[in-house]
Amino acid sequence: MAALIPILIVLLAGVGVAVQPPTNAALAKISGSLWLASLVSFAVGTMVLAAGWAALDRTPLSALKGAPGWAWAGGLYGACFVAALAYAAPRLGLASTLTIAVAGQLVTAILLDHFGLLGLKVEPVSVARIGGVALVIAGVLLVRRG
User: Which segments cross the bilayer (predicted)?
Assistant: First the structure.
């Protein structure tokens, strides 16, 4: 049962990832600015996270003092992801946009795992892992042709 909770949390997060691009694309269309829409998305997210941190955690900011330089780049990746998907979803369709994004994530994940980069445990590339990613890439092609 304990293993089910993180799976459910990630499934719900996946729902959020699916509805975020069209939501942000709507803001971009209405405002005429992809950048303003992405900024609003991050501002709302920042407010939610700040409220959660203040109510539930309150770890002091000084705890971040020893973080490596690369650990500060997460917001950059997130901002680029939000803006890219808000741009691509109305042009490619949501299913194509998300399958392309997942394919890129999985290829990168296999490389990061294989080399144990960014503090990850080494998980060597295997035929099964490559096959799984190949199936996702085939899925991208099928969704694009669909």
Answer: 34-56, 68-88, 94-112, 124-143
